[in-house]
Amino acid sequence: xxxxxxxxxxxxxxxxxxxxxxxxxxxxxxxxxxxxxxxxxxxxxxxxxxxxxxxxxxxxxxxxxxxxxxxxxxxxxxxxxxxxxxxxxxxxxxxxxxxxxxxxxxxxxxxxxxxxxxxxxxxxxxxxxxxxxxxxxxxxxxxxxxxxxxxxxxxxxxxxxxxxxxxxxxxxxxxxxxxxxxxxxxxxxxxxxxxxxxxxxxxxxxxxxxxxxxxxxxxxxxxxxxxxxxxxxxxxxxxxxxxxxxxxxxxxxxxxxxxxxxxxxxxxxxxxxxxxxxxxxxxxxxxxxxxxxxxxxxxxxxxxxxxxxxxxxxxxxxxxxxxxxxxxxxxxxxxxxxxxxxxxxxxxxxxxxxxxxxxxx
Length: 361
Known about the structure:
The chain is α+β, with helices and mostly antiparallel strands. Helices cover 32% and strands 23% of the residues. The strands form four sheets. It has a six-stranded mixed β-sheet with strand order 4-7-8-9-10-11, with helices on both faces. It has a three-stranded antiparallel β-sheet with strand order 1-3-2.
């Protein structure tokens, strides 16, 4: 396995120790009984910071100690809440700036991601069906459903979509969607995020695809791509992040689809450079593409679904009489529980009888 320390965590229960600094006095400590800001969130309301499709992003400053304490509390005392968070909520934590961001993917966000994931996965599957070097590479590329990534500066990120070579430390390709409605300065934020992914994985993250929805009164949507780039200066070689596709429109401000252009990636965009040796260039350059017109169609469909759901419209199941399952009062067993206990007791009794028959004094 190609190692690029520190280790990558795939579970939400990642504790932060590396890159941590002593927090400043003005940092919110919601798990502490005392806070310098009386209006700061408390440990009770931190997991329920107000989020909605209209306000799907919330960010506070949180000390590393309190971040780890929050993780510990969720694991030890809030199992149901932790399960809900893992299924429905994503968060990022930067122990260097102490920024703790919670976000809930909207319907538009989720449907657009699902469509992009399906198209990339479908084309990878076509390549896997072959018998050449490209097929060998594609068979080792898997899609991860928004798993946590622990970067080398200690930051925990939860990308929207990841593809990773099974022998690699980091996901080779990441997709992030930013709505300027939910995050100010979306373009700057995407650039900063891409730089961090590339640099704090030492180039192990080969490709960052960023989609920016400008919902501030327009329907403009753009796509960008970042890659690692190795440069030289007087001190030798150094790693930088290069934006090779710069906020190209696939949907105009008036909502019209951009017919020209496409998302173009290749198999080399999924794997670290150190794993490319032995593979011919024609395998590494095997293309995967999605036209901008198709991506715009995905986004338009997601927008329509959101509006239908928000308005309570669309086809619904016919009204029918419902019979709900009776709840068992606390401390009282239901009929299924009683039958299971009777079955176990019968097994124990039969086992005892057999042992009595086999016993010889």
